[in-house]
Amino acid sequence: MTVTTTSTSTRPLGVAILAFLVGLFGVLIIIGGLLILAAATVPAILGVPSSFVGESGAIWGVIVLIIGLIILGLALGLWHLRMWALVLTLIVVFLELASFAIAGNYVSLGFILSLIIFVYLLAVNRHFR
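Given the sequence above, the corresponding structure tokens read:
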């Protein structure tokens, strides 16, 4: 008796690429948050006067770090084909399209790429669970 298992949902290549790029962006944002945090705290520790030193710089560093972690979590959700990640991504892309439309940038590269991503994600939504 042979048991074969088939995957009910395979990851489309476009979703894998999108998840990778979103994950890369998340990592870069995390690095940026860490750099802001370091720029705000290291000079204060060393006693170097700086206009960026203080609580506000540290707070901004933590905020950017948290945003990066959220973006990285979204990338993992896309990679694992989670429905919540698809819905959140569609909302973000829709808001981006709306911002382009409000600005009147219908022929910009950003608008066209966002529209392609939006339509593509709607087309492959059956793969998400």
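Helices lie at 13-46, 55-79, 83-103, 109-123. Try to locate this feature in the token string yourself.
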